[in-house]
Design brief:
- The chain is mostly helical.
- It is built from four helices and no strands.
């Protein structure tokens, strides 16, 4: 008997709550605003990664060019320079060659990453053509 009483009471309690609260959806404007915020966050992350990659590429490019210039100065201009070069100069040439090689490898990686990030950004903008980034006050 006690179980029947509890079951009836629980049914009444749940039934009354169900009747009071029907399904409610957010407004179309609120949904659109939420979507804009989400898309904006993804595009902002892509833009940040793209800008950082381009800055790294520019700085590394300057350093590689500087290393190339310093290496060319230490080479000398004689036709048989490599035969009479001091061991210390050979060591410096090896260091320059390693730095230049690592820098050029990284530049290739950055060029590839930048191209991929630009593609992702373009894909995002084409998938969400109605997205308008917030205008910055000038």
């Amino acid at each position: 008997m006690f179980q029947l009483f509890l079951r009836a009471r629980a049914h009444n309690l749940l039934g009354s709550r169900r009747e009071d609260k029907g399904f409610k959806a957010r407004s179309v404007e609120r949904d659109a605003a939420t979507d804009r915020v989400r898309i904006g966050a993804v595009l902002a992350a892509i833009d940040t990664a793209l800008q950082e990659s381009e800055r790294e590429q520019a700085g590394l490019n300057r350093r590689v060019d500087d290393a190339l210039a310093r290496a060319s100065v230490t080479f000398g201009n004689g036709t048989d320079e490599y035969l009479e070069r001091e061991p210390l100069d050979n060591h410096h040439q090896d260091l320059f060659a390693a730095d230049i090689s690592n820098g050029q490898r990284r530049l290739k990686e950055l060029a590839s990453a930048i191209a991929h990030l630009k593609f992702v950004k373009t894909a995002m903008l084409t998938r969400f053509p109605d997205f308008k980034p917030p205008q910055l006050d000038s």
